[in-house]
Amino acid sequence: MNRTPVVFIHGVWLHALSWESWAERFASRGFLAFTPGWPGEAATAAQVRESPGSLGGAGLDVLMDHYAGIVRAFDVPPVIIGHSVGGLIAQHLIGADIGRAAVAVASAPVNDVALPSSPTRPCAPGQADGSAPLVSLSPQRFHHLVANTVGAEESDRLFQRYGVPAPRRLLADLGCGGAQRSPRAVADIGNARRGPLLLISGQEDRLVPDSATREVYKQYGDSTAVTDLKQFADRAHSLVVDGGWRSVADYVLGWLDERGIRGLPDAD
Fold first, then answer.
1. CB atoms within 10 A of CB 165
2. Residue 170 contacts residue 63 (beta carbons within 8 Å)
3. DSSP output for 102-146
4. Can you count the helices (H) and strands (E) in the chain?
5. Which of 104, 145, 159, 257 has the maximal Cβ count within 10 Å?
6. What's the pLDDT score for residue 122?
7. pLDDT above 80 for 128
């Protein structure tokens, strides 16, 4: 029996291990779960922070091609679940008819939807060394920007386990600091043949505000393809890793089930 694969794509500021609980949860429901990291990403967040290696060269073009190759390699089209820039990649791929369905969690916006400008954003001009290939967050900054709805102790634990620096090149590709967004930060919103898409936002997200996700959702309004939106109250950008991760994961599992997408396709 062919089990349905799921490819999890992480975004900026978090390591691929940020999907470890989701992978276990989805596997328990019969899915084949895969959490491939970015090209050259070390095995743990601590190793990345200590020796980031080639991470600084990761731009949106590199990540798009990397994950497109992974998703296309499966005999059974996988579900694509992405967080942050991973959500942008998931939308791009499903819009190009790559994959069976997609879920974009706290996704970096696509097309002409821009993030609200703010001097507190970690990619703002003048923050850190503008010539450095990587932009790092301190544990305190991580708490303020990523895990702002949990306590300091939980935020510090999440940072130690999952927190990594972000490639400045990638942040520029996303339009941070007034940079011109990459032409690949797009999704085909008019493709009526694509698989179903679920957009998820946290209403207390300081990095990707709920308003940006709602604006992206409106762009899909004229398409006859399935596009759904789920907003989680009192949740931040850390909603895939913090203490409430399971409620988000289980919502996604339920949404997939409603669309007839199950780990074991012949299961009742």
1. 21
2. yes
3. EEEESPPP-TT--PPP-TTSTTSTTSS-TTSSEE---HHHHHHHT
4. 9, 8
5. 104
6. 52
7. no
Coil, helix or strand for 26? helix
pTM over 0.90: yes
d(CA 39, CA 246): 28
Dihedral of CA atoms 182, 187, 188, 191 in degrees, nearest 10, equals 170
Please state, in angstroms and rounded to a whole number, the distance separating the CA atoms of residues 95 and 101: 10
Give tens-digit pLDDT for 18-70: 999 999 999 999 999 999 999 999 999 999 999 987 788 899 999 999 999 99
Distance of alpha carbon 98 from the chain centroid: 17
- CA pseudo-torsion sign 211, 216, 217, 222: positive
